Amino acid sequence: MKTVSKFLVLFGAVALVSCEVFFEEKFLDDSWEKNWVQSKHPGKEFGVFKRTAGKFYNDEEADAGIQTSQDARFYGVSTKFTPFTNKDKPLVIQFSVKHEQNVDCAGAYLKVFDCSLDQKDLHGESPYLIMFGPDICGPGTKKVHVIFSYKGKNHLIKKEVRCKDDVFTHFYTLIVQPDNTYEVLIDNEKVESGSLEDDWDFLPPKTIKDPEAKKPEDWDERPTIADPDDTKPEDWDKPEHIPDPDATKPEDWDDELDGEWEPPQIDNPEYKGEWKPKQIDNPAYKGAWKHPEIDNPEYAADENLYLREEICTVGLDLWQVKSGTIFDNLLFTDDAAYAKEAAAGFKATQDGEKKMKDAQDEEERKKAEAEAKTEEKDEDNEDLDDEIEDKAEGEAEAADHDEL
Fold first, then answer.
1. Which of 39, 177, 230, 243 has its CB 3.0 to 4.6 Å from that of 122, i.e. a possible disulfide?
2. Confidence at residue 256, expressed as pLDDT on a 0 to 100 scale
3. CB 89 within 8 A of CB 160
4. Whole-angstrom Cα distance, residue 20 to residue 134?
5. Mean pLDDT of 309-325
6. What is the rounded average pLDDT for all residues in the chain?
7. Regarding predicted confidence, which is higher, 398 or 382?
8. pTM
9. Predicted confidence (pLDDT) at residue 61 exceeds the cutoff of 50
């Protein structure tokens, strides 16, 4: 029994050692500014990131991240870390986002780069390995981007992954497995998963339509046909409109001045519309013709769709119309369990934020009510002053009149 226990402890220690945290950033103090590089790309007016927990939070110090602080600005900062590869192991990317500004149009995603990135020239066309995170612009765009670069081309996920659009903190997690599968989690809950090959257009299709195949000329795809024995009834054709039989010529109608009188037209109750023969089952129907497919000679399987040989840099390359988004808890690891534990406090964070925001909203409501009452009282006083002034003026006029 002791031997088994020792083995389990040893196995656990080995498993722990095999898991790695490649990069973690919680913005615990202002030293982040020394590690992150601001882009100076020409032609872009960049906004400033400020370290803060925002207007409402659960723990002011622990919840502090970096926040976009200027409206209608580009944002471009990045940091490098020791290069690593996800060869033969999971890749887990995780971070938290808080849109406390009631966002209407703003990106809030990460971009992952290799070591070749010129950080001072980071911009929207800088080649990246992975782009992941929420993007909101109006009611039509509220998605989680999951974009991979493959052979020099960026490929968007073919599924629609909806992001959170409230004002509280949410954790976004991307897990890529070495078996070419993936998961997207929000607040530790899986919202999408599948195969890299199926959900992205990395590779040509496995099969294509046979270019040599053609639909036979006698192939009939009509399920029904007109009954050849059906004939139109002799009394079918009736005009769509007829003169109103109840209409009478007005007494004041002058044929010379008004022209020849004609009764108005009404819908003909006997009108049956255009005659069409009834439909019957087509005895020659063969069903919809399906184009035969053959193996695509351009298709080649790739077991390394998941692989990124060199991961070295993470950046925030964004445009925001309305600023106020807070980024925090950035994590790169090969351990999904570690990432799950790192995000485990999201509910307590959200509850604390909601409690503080509700208190602030209530205070604002009371303040607005008090200001409204004060304004109403001031208006009443003004009305009373006007009445007193009008009365005084009236009495003065009356006194002057009496003197006359």
1. 39
2. 86
3. no
4. 26
5. 96
6. 90
7. 382
8. 0.77
9. yes
pLDDT tens digits along 78-136:
999 999 999 999 999 999 999 999 888 999 999 999 999 999 999 999 999 999 999 99
pLDDT of residue 166: 95
